[in-house]
Amino acid sequence: MGNSQKASVPAIDIGISEKDRAKVAEALSKVLADTYTLYLMTHNFHWNVTGPMFNTLHNMFMEQYTELWNSLDVIAERIRALGHFAPGTYREYAKLSSISEPKDVPEALEMVRLLTKGNESVAKTARAAFGAADGANDQPTADLLTQRLDVHEKAAWMLRSLLQ
């Protein structure tokens, strides 16, 4: 190759149109934003929970935020595999997320309520993204979203059970 010649980068050709890849990546970006927001809230509550259920909630929140943290890379890397950049700033997450963060440190049972709602919000966002993935015949994204739905619906159930 000559001095200034670079090998051209081939276009993405995975059987999903650019328009559909963009639509799926946009939907996944919302899932990523919701997941990161829920991760941060869960970690915050892990640090700051108090009261008679401290040990139970402290450990449960750690298990949940660890799972959320590990899922962030999977979601972001799927966005990249579709040929788009993953959002990665608080500003972008605040704009994309459907989850409202609390202004103060709530008491323990309010933390549980907020995390229940947060997991349900991620599930709704993932379910909406599943429609985009399914419509684009994007099985890897649909599989990822099915797994995320299972995690968030189970977490919401377990948290809700503490309130009964």
TrEMBL record:
It comes from the Bacteria. One of its GO terms (molecular function) is ferric iron binding. Residues 26-164 form the Ferritin/DPS domain. PROSITE patterns: DPS_2 (PS00819). Belongs to the Dps family. This is DNA starvation/stationary phase protection protein.
